[in-house]
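Entry:
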Amino acid sequence: MKTLDILDRLLAFPTVSLEPNLDLILFVEDVLRQAGATVQVLRDESGTKANLYATIGQVDQAGGVLLSGHTDVVPVKGQAWTKPPFQMTQEDGKVYGRGTADMKGFVACAIAAMVRASQYDLKTPLHMALSYDEEIGCIGVRSLLDVLADAPFKPGFCIVGEPTSLAVATGHKGKTVIRATCTGREGHSALAPQALNAIHLATDLIAVLRQEQAALAASDAQDADYDVPYSTVHVGLIQGGVALNIVPNHCQLDFEIRNIAQDDPAEILNRIRAAADNIVARHSDDYPEVSINFEITNSYPGLLTPESSDVVAFVKSLTGANATMKVAFGTEAGLFTQRLSLPTVVCGPGSMAQGHKPDEFVTLVQLQQCDQMLDALIARLRDGL
């Protein structure tokens, strides 16, 4: 099957995050098994979602290159699409559909490359990994990494095919998601000063977060390769109160830390915790039930692959690129490096400027260039790298 034929099929599976992706995985499994690949399908506990790991070439041989992608896409609800999101549309040199850029375009190229590679006797194996629920915090890939960590033979390099317009990306920030729960004392709003408003506690905490953000922006820890060259703290959700005439005793806010490699998110959070303890201490004599508690609900590490590393030189040789970049968005790449010590870069067709938007697209030229990059990879694998 050709890349566009595969992409047409992939787009038809509405694999929105949290929804099943099993039908897509079984389709890919069938294509790869017919090509002679060794395939593992790793289902989750529900049996409706799965990761996939496949190899063309010797499975009992260490090394080779792993092509990695996620199968889930972001929702289309509330977006003003003018083209069917789950049906491929070609127009004016572009391919439209949800996930064309992020990142079913690369997945289609990778599957097609696996099929082409099966026609040769590879001296070094080609691997592919597909995951689920990446868009909501790199959820699915973690169980796949557990399996690979225990495998006797591991790949030598990894290419995560997120959209970079086929530039070689060596880094992205890490992300930690935290839920803060503020507890005060309820009361009638007519007697509000006699109660302890949990929303007010939350606003005091938000002031702490903004102070921490200002300190990070002014710190010496900077990375000019990012559009925002410092670590960031961002509040995205806040929930509190049940009625206007009730002083709320509960307020919850969700915030995130996106850290550059020079900053430790645990240290940032420890500073925030210490400041929150000071807020609580101001009220604890009069309101012993007061508290601000923190729960880390999700996290993934950043990626910082040295530009001098072999994987960077290797992938640049496939693309013809002379420079590298870092991407603003998070990926699974940092997890491959952290969990498997696997040298990893991010490189794939399309641009995140089109991702997550209505009428998402990737250009035919980018898909063709990705196919060419993977053809160059196959040639190197035939020769043993």
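Residues 174-300 form a domain with the Alpha-Beta Plaits fold (CATH 3.30.70.360).
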